[in-house]
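Troubleshooting log. The previous structure file for this entry was overwritten by mistake, so regenerating from the original sequence record. Sequence copied from the archived sheet and checked twice against the printout by T.R.
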Amino acid sequence: MHKPNTTGGSELARDSGLAGDKSVEAATVIASKLAPTRAAVFSLGFRPFFLAGAGFAVLAVAIWALWLYGRLPGAQPIGGMLAWHRHEMPFGFATAIIAGFLLTAVPNWTGRPGLNGWPLIGLVLVWLLARLAWLLPISPTLLIALQLPFLPLLAWCLGRDLVAAGKRDNYPILLMITLLAGCQAMTLWGFVADDAGLQRHGVLAALWLVAALMSVIGGRVIPFFIQRGLNRPAAAPASPLTTKVLLLGGLLAAVSFAAGLNDTPKLWLAALFLMLGAVHLLRLWRWHDRGLWRVPLLWSLYLAYAWLVVATLAMALWHLGLMPQQSLATHSLAVGGIGGLILAMIARVSLGHTGRLLQPSKTVVLGFALLLLAGVCRVLLVPFSAAGLGLSALLWCAAFGLFLTRYTGILLKPRV
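Regenerated output below.
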């Protein structure tokens, strides 16, 4: 019988799934040597951004739910609570986690030192100021000026290392960050023009870009996690065709949302989403191993990725006229897929990069289960009961809150 891999040291670093030509541990050691006197939390990108992103996930969804149920009277953010919620979940929460992940992964793909110390502090402050800007008594123009810099700065930080190292196979990831910046600009322009439709198009395009990014990264790391976590023999390299299909299909889906083509059902878009769902399902079938159900860090990733199948097939059903609410597909992706993959990924990466055993506490395993239930409530309960929104939000906040209770100390302290 194969036992789950819970080893530490260099093998643990490799098992974090971010290794490229250099090991993950090498870049972590480089960063620590470059800044031995600096706070551990700013030694590598995953530490401050995972903390900030998880904390914001709790705060933002709690505020949104309290407002929906009339429990948050008083002043609203500039542009109203709906505009704030639409913007902040993809461009505040998701981009923080993406930044933390990629600022940790790219140094290992390139062998170059990762962003740390004062430059990293500066980037975190740019993200934080953008979040606080919604609450400040400023003009919409200044609000936008504070929102826009983060993603271009992130793209520049990542791009300079990828270009210098000649890592052309990773350029699509850089392209998606750049396109996300374009989606944010579209969303904010809709805010200035008081065009709710344009806001919605920009946000939905961003969500499907994030899904495409996660399908690319997930295709790299999830099978590796399963193979290493269960001590299975190394499998033959997967065909790059699947990743290319999901990348191009995801980009096309994002463009279709940006162009407003999903405002009304279309048969060719039903075919696109059916194809994407089938490829995601094929991946899950290829990755499946009965042993993964014994390992929380594996089944949490696997089930979260399965939400991408649900979201794409739900969009196909909507375009075929077989599902009444497109928002159910959107929240399958946002809550179950993006939220679930983020929680599972940051739990694993944080353990691996701080030199700890790949054994999450029971508290965090409970968080995995609660986030899965949050997705189920948002998609399956909401059509029948308004209480589904509140329950889903409560479960979401509890899941990320449990992560913070167990991981805040880990992310603030030096590597073991």
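The longest helix spans residues 196-229. Archived copy saved in two places this time.
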